Sequence to fold (310 residues):
Amino acid sequence: MTQPEVLDHSPDLSLTGERIDALLTASATGGRIAQERAEELVRLVTDLYGSGLEHMMEILFELGHLDDRTLASLAGDELVSGLLLVHGLHPYGIEQRVEDALEGVRPYLGTHGGDVELLEITDEGVVRLRLLGSCDGCPSSSVTLSLAVEGAIEAAAPEVIGIEVEDASPDSKDTGGLISVDSLMSRLQVEPPGGADWHVLAELSALAAGEVTSAEAGGLSLLLCRIGEDLYAFVDRCARCESSLAGSALARRLGGGLGDALLTCPSCQVHYDVRKAGACVDVPELHLNPLPVLADGGTVSVAVPATEVA
Fold:
């Protein structure tokens, strides 16, 4: 008999960072002095725990326990790794962290028939990549891969100032140089991928940062969200329980960067990484179906397939 899948229902620490931001914002209602005191309190607590982490690392080193296995375990824990990054204590350099991030996202890329190669990291902090393979049958095509890779790198190496992607897929019309993710998306304007049609969505262009909403286009229910200036669209269906994601909200991982955001299914509580093109955090083989988004001036369009993606 197949054993039922057991999920970790421990408290969601990713909500802590979001709650801290909300409390700091709320403190502003008490006046400038109250806000400054609240911000100072957060800084002092952060510095205190940062000093504690630094002392712990020094003690482990002096005792001879800070070996490769221990370092790998610390760097492999998402929460600990994030805190070490915040305080400049991460044991691995930028190149290894980027390589590890790419290795972590390769199983997801493989589900779309793709892969990624690290070409170089420039002295200025620009990561240059080459996308390999293709998303066979996926309407997001190279955009899906780009978003997944971009999100993984930003989470592992927040000091990266830019990511340049070379599309090496057979269908690429421009193989003569590097193109940015934004440029890659703009090329979709000529012909939507996978036989899809562009649909203008006023709901998406009106979204504020951090907001999530639902919409209908081409007979398909969509989930739309914005992280900073970046817009995202997904087929509105949880990959685990197949229920609607309407009512879900964006939350930041504890220790994650400002642009690090998760969507939580209101029904089964699994988490999806928005910047990794909807990869499921709890069940790695699952993912949402992302759709290409094209911003042209004040108009935002989404490429909706004629038939729903499996």
Q: What stands out?
A: The chain has a mean pLDDT of 75. The chain is about 35% helix and 25% strand.
